[in-house]
Request: fold
Amino acid sequence: MTAAVLAVAVLATGTYAMRLAGVLLADRFTPPGWLRRLLPLAAVALLAGLAVTAALTEAGRSAGVARPAGVLVGVILAGRRQPFAVVVLAAAGTAAGLRLLGLP
Amino acid sequence: MRTLSRTLSRTIDAGLLRDTGALAAAAVLIGVSFGAIAVAAGLPGWLAVGMSVLVFAGGAQFLAVGLLAAGNPVAAALGGLLINARHVPFGLALAADRSNPSVLGRRWWTRLLGSHLMVDESVAFAIAQADPVQRRRAYWLTGGALLLAWNGGTLLGVLLGGAVSDPGRLGLDAAFPAGLLALLWPSLRDPVARRVALVGAAVALLATPLLPAGAPVLLALAGLVAAAPVPTRRARGAGPA
Reply:
């Protein structure tokens, strides 16, 4: 119990410190132009890596069929400029539907 | 009423509000499942809610609860921190953007508060906006709505308990990546960003079976090699900041 509280405290403090660290660093030192151009691309790379691993894997293994299929439907709709709500609902609905049919 | 909605739509455009609403609704449901799972794993309800308020990062929280339930608090803290390390480059990207108005504001307290609202969705939505005013609105609106939705959801999940502990049944595990990609979509119209995203995602995916959770996502930074050839300093001069 105490250990769990301590773990959460460390995680919370460390997470906030990391959120703040990048901001303070960029406030102190004006990054050169090439780096400023690269930083939004770094965010894009990280977010794409996060989204794709979350879409296709679970605990280091394949996430099965239903989740990737749901995400694919969502991405197709996003590509057709459908509203965000439609994208998210279609992705969740597809995954939930396929699971109802017994797919992993 | 009409005047009010007209005034509102002048300050915050309707599309932004609608997108944020959809995002918040999904976050409530995922928050509910987090709260329920945390309590089912033996965490006291107040600790689950406290975690959502103070950590405010879904992936790290789910991982930490799983590892706490497995009796490994050290791994829970370190694993969660590894997953959240991506916030350092996020903060750099937001604060290094010198356009006016700045995303996080100029006063110290808006920067402290704004830093806590730094989550994947608020960053993705913000960097997808071309206009600095829109960028700031997207960031604060998304971050604020998610903070409320995520914590409200967690509280609800703690109270409801086991009734909703399986996010898979509602397909919510597909909603998060699909939503994130949809937020990222406008950024990917730029061919360089698209190459960077593809290479980054491929590297992260290949590393996933080999490395602990969180590390593969950091390796996605390797996607930046796809940004080369960077325009030479002399050839292009100072681009738009």
In short: Residues 190-241 of chain B form one domain. Residues 48 and 172 of chain B are 19 Å apart (CA to CA).
